[in-house]
Write a sequence for this structure.
C-alpha cells in the first residue's frame, strides 16, 4: 500500500503554493503522529497551517484501487467520523483568516462530510462574501458522502449562491438545479445562464471536459461562460496516465492562479494545461511550476528530456 496526504481544498492550496502564491488551509487533523505528519506535509508544500486544529478523532481516509486500461479505478471512503467531520464554527476565526485574503476556495466534499462542517463553511462563505473576496466553488457532488440527513443538492445550491466563480459544468449544474441541459456548447451556455439566474452572485462558469478512452488514456479541454462570451481551449491528450486523482483540483488551482495573473482566455488555458500535467504525477498534488504549465500551453507536449 502507498499512502499520500490529500484532500480537495488542500490539493488546490498545495498546487497554488508551488505556483508561488500564499495559501492557508482551514481544517482539523488527528491529535497524534498521523496528524503531525499531515501538518508537516502541508508545511513542506508551503501552506500556512496556523488555522489547523488538532482533535481527538482519527484522520479521515479513502482507499483507491488504481485502474488501468479498460479496468476502472475504485474508491472507498472512511471519513464519516474523522477529524474533519468534527470541525465546528467555534474553532475557526474566519475574520482573522480572511483579513488579507483575496480568494476563498471550497468544494462540495467539505459540506458533505458533516453538519458541523457545512455550518463552519457557510459562516466562512458569508464572511468572505461580505468582505468582497472572490469565492471559487467546485461543487464536486459525491452521493455516498452525504450521510447526515441534509439534501446535498439543496446545500450545494445554497453555498454556490454565496460564491462568485463556479468551477464545474453541465453535470454539476444539472445536479444543483435539477435540470437536464445537454453537454453541447449550446447546452453548456444555457446551463451557465440558468445557474447565474438562479445564483446571481456567480459571475463566471469554468468547466473541464474530459474524454476517457480508458483509465490510462484521457483527453481534456476547458470551456467557460464569462457572462458575456463563450471561451474554449484546445484539447490536450494524455496517453499514459500516471495518476488521475487530484486532476480536478489541479484545474481549479490553475484557474485561480490564472484569474489572478491573466485575462479569462489565458486563465482557462493555464487551468487546462495544469490539469493535463497532473495526470503525469503520482499522488494528490500537482507539483509543477507556472513555467512548466506555460510550456505545455505553448505546445511543448513531446516529453523530451531537458539537459
Amino acid at each position: 500500500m502507498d499512502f499520500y496526504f490529500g484532500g480537495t481544498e488542500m490539493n488546490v492550496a498545495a498546487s497554488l503554493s508551488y505556483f508561488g502564491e500564499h495559501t492557508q488551509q482551514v481544517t482539523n487533523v488527528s491529535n497524534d503522529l498521523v496528524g503531525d505528519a499531515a501538518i508537516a506535509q502541508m508545511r513542506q508544500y508551503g501552506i500556512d497551517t496556523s488555522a489547523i486544529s488538532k482533535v481527538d478523532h482519527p484522520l479521515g481516509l479513502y482507499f483507491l484501487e488504481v485502474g488501468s486500461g479498460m479496468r476502472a479505478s475504485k474508491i472507498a471512503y472512511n471519513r464519516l467520523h474523522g477529524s474533519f467531520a468534527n470541525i465546528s464554527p467555534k474553532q475557526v476565526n474566519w475574520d482573522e483568516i480572511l483579513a488579507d485574503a483575496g480568494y476563498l476556495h471550497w468544494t462540495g466534499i467539505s459540506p458533505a462530510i458533516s453538519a458541523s462542517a457545512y455550518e463552519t463553511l457557510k459562516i466562512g462563505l458569508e464572511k468572505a462574501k461580505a468582505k468582497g473576496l472572490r469565492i471559487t466553488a467546485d461543487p464536486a457532488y459525491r452521493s455516498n458522502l452525504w450521510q447526515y440527513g441534509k439534501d446535498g443538492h439543496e446545500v450545494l445550491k445554497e453555498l454556490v449562491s454565496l460564491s462568485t466563480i463556479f468551477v464545474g459544468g453541465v453535470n454539476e449544474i444539472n445536479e444543483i438545479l435539477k435540470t437536464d441541459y445537454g453537454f453541447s456548447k449550446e447546452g453548456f451556455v444555457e446551463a451557465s445562464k440558468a445557474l447565474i439566474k438562479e445564483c446571481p452572485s456567480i459571475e463566471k462558469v469554468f468547466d473541464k471536459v474530459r474524454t476517457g478512452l480508458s483509465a490510462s488514456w484521457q483527453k481534456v479541454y476547458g470551456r467557460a461562460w464569462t457572462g458575456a462570451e463563450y471561451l474554449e481551449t484546445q484539447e490536450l491528450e494524455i496517453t499514459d496516465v500516471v495518476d488521475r486523482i487530484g486532476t480536478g483540483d489541479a484545474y481549479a488551482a490553475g484557474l485561480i492562479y490564472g484569474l489572478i495573473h491573466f485575462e479569462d482566455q489565458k486563465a482557462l488555458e493555464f487551468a487546462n494545461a495544469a490539469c493535463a500535467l497532473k495526470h503525469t504525477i503520482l499522488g494528490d498534488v500537482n507539483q509543477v511550476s507556472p513555467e512548466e504549465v506555460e510550456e505545455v500551453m505553448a505546445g511543448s507536449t513531446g516529453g523530451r528530456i531537458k539537459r
